[in-house]
Amino acid sequence: MTVHEDNYSLGKQFHAALVTADWDTIRSLLHEDATWELPGDNTISGTAYGADGVVERARKIAGYGLNFTLLHILVSPRNMALSLHNTAQRGDLVLDEHLSTVCTVRDGKIAAIETYLSDVDGMNAFFV
């Protein structure tokens, strides 16, 4: 496999594990010192540190009942990104956002994640 194919496969595995709540698989795709940065000012914002912290954040986000619709997996010579459309409803609160989850890949595993959002204010309102 080429690096592009490896990164594409990594993105596909990460998304599939997120959708199926397969936390062990997500953890296996991460370096021990992985980080995940999310913008905003809410319960899921900031930086999650370490593989366990990244998995815990994914669990917390999924716990809000999100639908993680994959639009595209994007690859570069070294890294990978997921283009997603996340939706959810909780009472009168509705989440409808597009995002890019950019993953820094090191030695075939995710070393860092940085998420870019289309609606930070909407995310802040939903994740209270």
From TrEMBL:
Annotated ranges, domain SnoaL-like: 13-112
A matching Pfam family: SnoaL_2
InterPro entries listed in its UniProt record: NTF2-like_dom_sf, SnoaL-like
Descriptive protein name: SnoaL-like domain-containing protein
Organism of origin: Streptomyces paromomycinus (Streptomyces rimosus subsp. paromomycinus)
